[in-house]
From TrEMBL:
Occurrences of domain Acyltransferase (ranges): 11-359
Name of the protein this chain belongs to: Acyltransferase
Taxonomic source organism: Eubacterium segne
Molecular functions (GO terms): acyltransferase activity
Annotated transmembrane regions: 16-36, 48-67, 93-112, 152-170, 182-201, 244-263, 275-291, 312-333, 339-360
Pfam family, one: Acyl_transf_3
Record bears the keyword Transmembrane: yes
Lineage: Bacteria, Bacillati, Bacillota, Clostridia, Eubacteriales
InterPro entries: Acyl_transf_3_dom, Acyltransferase_3
Record keywords: Acyltransferase, Membrane, Transferase, Transmembrane, Transmembrane helix
Length: 373
């Protein structure tokens, strides 16, 4: 097997994480849609689907890749599986925990603004805090609880719950990993399950108070994680001419992703077809860049991209509290709703996010298991 898919780290993935996180952060600047001609933002830039999918699929790929590099899994018990999940998030958890309390006053304020009494608002907020502390909020399938205190915390919660399942999934994968035919078959079945459960969860969401099953919950995202595991097997077992994966193929898939990002919201096709395209573009991106055969891969593997990519989970958790308070300050002073002011606000949010992250990490560069360690 070519060394590019057997080495310990695939740095191009770390570089891709940088750009995907910028997309996610940009998608959270919803106040831009309220500006004059705000449809420009809503139509062309408010789209995080591909980027969010990317991180879940890459997480599965990364865990399987680490396991292929002789990572030893514990005996499959509930206790060991929980310990495995804790191990995967423990580096980022202190920052996550602190940010919960940073967001707590704002969350309480919002609850009171919704018409709740101080006592009711306090009780609701504390209940959310308890769920968030144990990283189980996304398991509720209820949007108000899943988004919790720090709204973006659902992502880490879902990852944590999926990590708990990983020892079992990786053990089961041992039975098929050496057969490209079997891996391809199960990958196809997994894709079919994603589509089926989209419909099932959407039906449940439209009829019950479980209104967050198809995006934030681990019940659907587990299939994305499994896709990443199987995709790693495919990369390892691929018998194609690796020279086919070069700068041209990397350029094509990058351009397809860029065009889809820009025009996705403007295309009038069934939303489920869009979900499939989101998924398949992520899969192609990860598959092609796993071989690191082109100039784009080399560019993504430089020191800047690797350092930035390793900080993405910090950016993700930190940017949203900053966005809440910065926007509250701008709203308090009621500046004119112009793109000039909007761009200044976005710039401040991004700069403060990078500065706070740099202060927290210092000279140490941490990464979560969505990178190729």
């Amino acid at each position: 097997m070519n060394s590019s898919v057997s080495k310990k780290r695939i740095n191009s993935f770390t570089g891709l994480r940088f750009y995907m996180m910028i997309i996610i952060m940009l998608s959270h600047m919803e106040f831009l849609s309220l500006l004059h001609n705000g449809y420009v933002y809503s139509r062309f830039f408010h789209n995080a689907y591909v980027a969010v999918n990317f991180f879940f699929i890459l997480s599965g790929f990364g865990l399987a890749y680490s396991y292929k590099c002789n990572e030893h899994l514990p005996q499959i018990t509930l206790r060991n599986s929980i310990s495995y999940g804790i191990k995967r998030v423990k580096k980022i958890y202190p920052v996550y925990f602190i940010l919960l309390f940073v967001c707590l006053p704002y969350c309480l304020y919002l609850s009171i603004s919704d018409g709740n009494t101080i006592i009711v608002a306090f009780c609701k907020t504390i209940f959310k805090l308890i769920l968030d502390i144990f990283l189980v909020q996304s398991s509720t399938g209820i949007l108000q609880l899943s988004t919790g205190i720090n709204s973006v915390g659902w992502f880490l919660s879902t990852l944590f719950l999926l990590y708990i399942c990983c020892p079992l999934l990786l053990k089961l994968n041992e039975k098929i990993k050496n057969s490209l035919k079997a891996v391809s078959l199960f990958w196809g079945i997994n894709l079919a399950l994603i589509i089926i459960f989209y419909y099932i969860f959407e039906a449940i969401e439209s009829r019950t108070f479980f209104d967050s099953l198809s995006y934030t919950s681990p019940y659907l995202r587990i299939f994305y994680l499994i896709s990443g595991i199987l995709l790693c097997d495919m990369v390892k077992l691929s018998k194609r001419n690796l020279n086919a994966f070069n700068t041209f193929s990397e350029t094509v898939i990058v351009l397809l992703n860029i065009l889809w990002f820009v025009f996705r919201n403007s295309i009038t096709i069934d939303i489920h077809i869009k979900y499939i395209v989101d998924f398949l573009l992520c899969v192609l991106l990860i598959y092609i860049f796993a071989f690191e055969r082109g100039y784009i891969s080399k560019a993504l593997s430089n020191s800047f991209h690797v350092k930035a990519g390793n900080n993405t989970m910090y950016w993700f958790l930190i940017h949203y509290p900053i966005r809440l308070y910065v926007h509250a300050i701008f709203s308090f002073f009621s500046p004119a709703a112009t793109w000039y002011i909007g761009i200044i606000e976005v710039t401040i949010i991004f700069v403060l996010t990078f500065l706070v992250t740099n202060i927290i990490t210092g000279k140490k560069h941490y990464s979560t298991d969505t990178s190729m360690k």
